[in-house]
Write a structure and sequence with these properties.
six-stranded mixed sheet
């Protein structure tokens, strides 16, 4: 890849005429580290201004990376629909920048990124912002979480698609995979042992609930037979959805 990190020169600022005199203003900026290039998008500018500034920065100087460099997009609360994110990825690719990860606080952006096959990170940004309270609304994805992808969310995650080996979902709440779960699933990641993992077909590389880790079952679940992974009496258990609901109903009647 040939990344130059640490002492790489900063991107130039736009001409004074384009940013105004005597007025502080957020701007697009790049930085680099051992993980690659990082692109930060401001939240206060209109998208047209962000796009124009990004194009200007990419075209106005020689890149300080060699070869194709992996890029992480930091877009904070900015909502990027799927076509917008696609156009952004194409623009970056023209300058030998390969978008692979998206850091966001927006569910809209997270869904678009996961649909396009990018790794999505939500929790780390939420943790460094004490106010407003963390967004624990469910995250709904219609995609395939492929090898190398990581979906992290402080609420529950509902995936309509497959979780492939090498991919992972880490959720503060439940994880529902309406497809084949063959990667790593960690529900209740912030300590909630009441969280559950549900999958249409269960063939995981690893299962976790809160601080508990379970070995993968020796044989996969029957095709199209939903199974539930849950914590009970100090251990992680697996049962068919029908059996799980029956046990829960019996426990409620007995209490």
């Amino acid at each position: 890849m040939g990344l130059l990190v640490g002492n790489s020169p900063p991107f130039p600022k736009a001409p004074a005429s384009s940013i105004g005199v005597g007025a502080a203003k957020e701007s697009v900026y790049f930085r680099s580290d051992a993980q690659g290039i990082h692109l930060h998008l401001p939240t206060t500018l209109a998208w047209e201004e962000v796009w124009d500034e990004l194009v200007w920065q990419l075209r106005s100087r020689k890149s300080y990376w060699t070869g194709v460099a992996p890029l992480t997009l930091w877009c904070q609360e900015r909502e990027l629909e799927l076509p917008t994110l696609q156009a952004l990825a194409v623009l970056l690719a023209q300058h030998r920048l390969q978008l692979w990860r998206v850091q966001t606080r927006s569910r809209t952006t997270a869904i678009a990124a996961a649909t396009l096959g990018y790794s999505v990170e939500q929790s780390s940004l939420l943790e460094v912002v004490p106010s407003p309270p963390p967004d624990t609304a469910p995250l709904y994805l219609r995609s395939t979480v492929r090898s190398g992808m990581s979906v992290r969310h402080r609420g529950s995650v509902f995936l309509l698609g497959d979780l492939n080996p090498g991919g992972e979902i880490v959720a503060g709440g439940d994880i529902w995979v309406w497809g084949r779960l063959r990667g790593l699933a960690h529900a209740g990641a912030e300590g909630d042992r009441s969280a559950v993992i549900l999958a249409l077909q269960l063939e995981p590389t690893q299962l976790r609930i809160a601080d508990q880790v379970a070995r993968p079952p020796e044989s996969g679940s029957p095709c199209n037979t939903p199974e539930v992974v849950y914590w009970q009496d100090g251990a992680i258990c697996i049962a068919s959805l029908q059996e799980f609901l029956r046990r829960r109903a019996w426990a409620e009647l007995s209490s």
